[in-house]
Structure prediction request, 659 residues.
Amino acid sequence: MTEAFSVKQYLRDLKLPFCPGCGAFTVINAFLKAVYESGYTDLSKFVFCSGIGCSSWIPSPYFKADSIHTLHGRSIPVATGVKLMRPNLNVVVFGGDGDIVGIGLSHFIHAARRNLDVLVIMVNNMIYGMTGGQVAPTTPFKTKTTTTPYGSFEHPLDAAKLAVTAGANYAARWTTAHQNELKEAVKKALEMKGFRFIEVVSQCPTAFGRRAGFKDAGEMVRWFKVNSITIKQTKNLNEEDIAKKIVVGEFIQKRRPTLIETIYNTIKEAQKTEEN
Amino acid sequence: MGTLKSGIYFLQGSEACAEAAIMVGCRFFAGYPITPATEIAEHMAKRLPQIGGIAIQMEDEIASIGAVIGASWAGAKGMTATSGPGFSLMQESIGYAFMTETPCVIVDVQRAGPSTGQATKCGQGDVMQSRWGTHGDYSAVVLSPNSVQEMFDLTVRAFNLAEKYRTPVVLLSDEVTAHMRERVVIPPIKKVEIINRKKPKRGDKAFFGLEEVPPMPSVGEGFNVAVTGSTHNEYGIRFTADPLVHRKLVERLNGKIQNHIGEIADVESYKIDDCQIGIVSYGCTSRAIYDVIEAAETKGVKVGYVRLKTLWPFPDEIIKKLAETANKIIVPEMNLRQIFYEVKRAAEGQAQVIPMNKIGGGELITPEELLDKILEEAKKGND
Ligand SMILES: Cc1ncc(C[n+]2csc(CCOP(=O)(O)OP(=O)(O)O)c2C)c(N)n1
Ligand code: SF4
Prediction:
């Protein structure tokens, strides 16, 4: 690894489709840098699965790799089939918050429960970006979106905490203002097994920022930085105050037997029983 | 224990289906319990691990077919089994498998709908859903077994067609055919035709065009395959607005089924060139025909039939032939007219097409009822 890092070595020669200032660019950079620093000079040991949405376009077809761009919300089931039949490949899922914890929520919970050996990177822009700015399960309370013109009357979901509750081996949340931490989280996750979840709070200047009163993408990223607190810092705050903040850090890191381990053990046992 | 040894067995339809799948090389099953399809999942869960395959119960039918699609891109032959409600949930993914040219087999063991309907009772109400259930311009391949032997034979065929044409194939069974037990002849594996998808050569890059059925790589083989259900060119690159790319892709996908109806659409027929009354039937309902032909003949009515072993693509040609000979064609179905309209269309006014329908309680159209109908229509003459 003498060459300097360049995202180009991992990307097809295509123009990326994202709006100027979109957080997707930051996510791509951080992810590929982590891949590089983990010693992968290409993506031949990876398979990417994604759903439908702007964030689901991150790997597909832009990464020079195998990528399966599935249906809205269905990347995790497809990743399940891929991983079970090709246990030696690194299966990484990319998706938006609507894709992963809106329409695809049940798959997310069950994959964490099974401790399926995949890394899920959820780009949480707090909005349905691709369809033009509708309320998402992650949209902050009182936010105006095209389908909540008087402000959202629902409270957002804490996806990282849910991953912990459901049984993930790893769960972390960072923002696009935490590029280094994000990259390190990806590196750590790539070394681990089981269900690993990284939530990246990200800016969608087009469908969220404008309506929420941000001048531009830069202002959003600065807001992420100022408004983030660590998990430790939440100890001194009440629930209401925490809800106004973005809690960043690692929520869990553990080694529970993974689905690949348990399912292949079961196959071995079934074959032994047969022989007797 | 490996694949089933050749011989004569007494099996349930579901077991025959599962054993056939295993014999043609299915090594991945994902499903969600539903009457009357659960036995297939149970049998796969028991048998697949014994031969190193994977069977997993997913959180719903959408996840089940999703996992099968993933397994297929990982190089495996995969199957799922369900009934009406689950089949409804799978429709979006069936379109995805079609658009991405993902071979897979979906078994729909029909029960009486709509909705939860009569969950344990037989029906044939999913015929049109199996043809048009997913959105967009789609060509379905749907097989219709009518015996335990055919649960075996047509499952083998379903996998072979899926692999050959790189497309999802539905085995449209029904409660009666999947639950009954019958004698089955299992051939030695060497005698079973097994078709595997065409694999690309090193350096190949076009996995979604150039040829009518392009070669299919697996993930992890170094081909950098980009799979998408959005409109794409030969190389899997998305073109979400270009009219020509869409036309070319979707016309090829439909063409690869429609240009091969002769090979795909399999029927069994009897005396279609010498009959007064024709019968067109399929699935469990078609079991009544065999008993009535002779009885009708002794009463002076010549009966010919077409039994549809493939429902889609629909075999227009043979129906046309039958219509040229028969004055009347009776279409018995356990639904409120589905294939009836298709027969009428194909008959092109050459014969009078008469529906015969029964739903509820899983009650079959009995041979007596069919015979009465034949005699009644023969006596009435042409309207
Ligand atoms: C079954 C289905 N329902 C709805 C849609 C329309 N749709 C496309 S993307 C999307 C939401 C995108 O939001 P998110 O997943 O958060 O991704 P983002 O675009 O914000 O990155 C929706 C609702 C669809 N493609 N499929
Ligand atoms: S709409 Fe939002 S999420 Fe989508 S590309 Fe533009 S900025 Fe990014």
Q: What stands out?
A: Chain A is about 40% helix and 15% strand. Chain A has a mean pLDDT of 96. Residues 43 and 234 of chain A are 38 Å apart (CA to CA).
